[in-house]
Design brief:
There is one protein chain. This protein is of the alpha/beta class. The chain is built from nine helices and 14 strands. The longest helix is centred in the C-terminal third of the chain and has 18 residues.
Amino acid sequence: MSLTTALALAVASATSGAPIVDIDLAGKVRQEMPGYQPGGNGAERRDPSGEFLYSVSLPQGTYRVTLTLGDKRSAGRTTVKAESRRLFLRDVATRRGEMVTRTFLVDVRDARLPRQPAGAPRFGQAVLLDERDLASFSWDDKLTLEFLGQPRVAAIHIEPADAPRLFLAGDSTVADQYAEPFTSWGQMLPAMLDDHLVVANHAKSGATMKSFIAQLRFSKALTQMRAGDWLFIQFGHNDQKAEWPMTYLDPELTYPAYLRSYIAEARRRGVHPVLVTSPERRNFDDTGKIKDTLGAYAAAVRKVAADEKVPLIDLNRDSIAIMQALGPNVSPQAFADNGKDRTHNNNYGAWLFAAAIARQVAEQIPELAPYVVLRNFDPSHPPLPDAMPIAPSIPLDEGKPEGS
């Protein structure tokens, strides 16, 4: 048995041995919920508005979450995010006395890596995490659900699941951002897929293709992958920074070479690679057109995708169309820090970019198209902010993500 096969079996075994969890919250107000204790389940944070985070101790793996939403005494509007603010359900309305059931798949992971065989080169035994990673819910031994808006939660059912996975490798525009107002398209994408495909977001703020390898994040993703999974690859914002000499990749030679290396690592495992061009930064010229800051890198991605016969998601093209459609006056409302940030989205902007990706997936990747539930999105006519309310997460303090 090969090492790759053994690792895949170990991952599957860990998930299959996980418990089935049933939690009854019917009629309970947040003060009546038990507090979370390691090894158990309970509320981690409670907001005076009635919003709350609820965690369940679980080993890494894929889980199907079935929620019963509603309350006998009052109406509600429930938004659900999981782990570090991955959106799954948006604004589910329930009338007084009405109960509805919703299901989705969540990827749970920790930072541990398999031990290297005797005589092999020595690496760390875990992904290199910084203080923001450690403060998030993405790298721990539990599943965390966030109930927002006017949440009405009657029951939570969690069970291990076996499903194809869509792995994300990228930078801050892809990564699970820990706190408002920063949000990535990778956090919005799960809400646009059905409950038979799970998103495993391994992206990291500030990441380059070199640092993603050096910090053992690519190693972690590779040890989790199984034949038939998918790997979406989007880098460029930070790789282009010549002032970061240890990680700089030029668009003509080294950047394409690293793209091909990622593709080869995926294919060797029977995983399907997909290349994604980086979203453009929000810089308008005097004529109302978006300035080009990533064009050479987007062109390199397009060429490698054509040469290697890899599916291409052209987010660079669609992000420009979205921002130009909104214009210099409205487009700041799609970016964090009240538009002062020109690279990182807020919930609304991340939803727009994720919707553009979902549409391209449905149109260009037949194997993934059946999983896409949001298709009727036109980048040249995006919905305005008032038409796309997304409940913000419970407030947490964090500075701007790394990278720009």
